[in-house]
Amino acid sequence: STFSISDLRLSTKTAPLDGSITATVTVANTGARAADEVVQLYLRDDVASITRPVKQLRGFRRVHLLPGQSETLTFTLTANDLAFYGADMKPVVEPGSFTVFAGGNSVDNLEAKFEVTAQ
Hints:
The chain is mostly beta strands. Helix content is about 5%, strand content about 60%. It has one helix at about 80, and strands spanning about 5-10, 15, 20-30, 35-45, 55-65, 70-75, 85, 90, 95-105, 110-115. It has a 5-stranded mixed β-sheet with strand order 2-10-9-4-5, with no helix packed on it. A 3-stranded antiparallel β-sheet has the order 1-3-6. It has a two-stranded antiparallel sheet with strand order 7-8. The longest helix has 4 residues, at about 80.
């Protein structure tokens, strides 16, 4: 079967250091057979003080859809998802720009941006 992933939305464009943000995306079965799709959510810290992964898997959901059926999936990103180990080897969330990617694989993605603020 084939799938379409669309309409990536974020609950807010700014979040505090200790806050959370919700991402929603719609997945639709555009093929002729019932099948499963695994929707993946990736995150990139655009301006970290140390080198970070280009895309870091932060969530995934397997969904079974009949032909023509669609479903909206919700992912919540918390401070734990945004944190990394700083130079002092302690978890830290830094203010700055983040990019969220959603898709059926790590290459073909929708993307949206948000800012983490120092409150």
